[in-house]
Amino acid sequence: MSLIAFHRFLIAAAILFCLGFGLWEFLAAREGGGAGAVALALIFTLLGIVLIVYLVHLGRFLGYDEGSAPKE
After folding, report:
1. How far apart are the first and last CA of the chain?
2. What does the buried/exposed string (b/e) look like for 50-72 if buried means 16 or more CB atoms within 10 Å of the residue's CB?
3. What is the tens place of the pLDDT at every residue in 23-69?
4. CA dist., res. 35 & res. 56, Å (int)
5. Rg of the Cα trace of the chain?
6. DSSP state, 2?
7. Alpha-carbon distance 61 to 72, whole Å?
8. pTM exceeding 0.70
9. Is pLDDT at 72 greater than 60 in this prediction?
């Protein structure tokens, strides 16, 4: 497994964590969790979305052109 493939795996795991935790906090806020639960839900949902954008454009962020990668 290449380093970039492992990085993609870690980012995908972070996305699942952020969106899952955001959903959990949203459900807690609906059950009377207060403003703190709403804030955490919004922050982690936004962070999950930012990580999705990062994952989609990872090659550009790293300056890595997947079409010209050397064959291993």
Report:
1. 11
2. ebeeebeeeeeeeeeeeeeeeee
3. 999 999 999 989 999 999 999 999 999 999 999 998 887 777 666 55
4. 32
5. 16
6. -
7. 22
8. yes
9. no
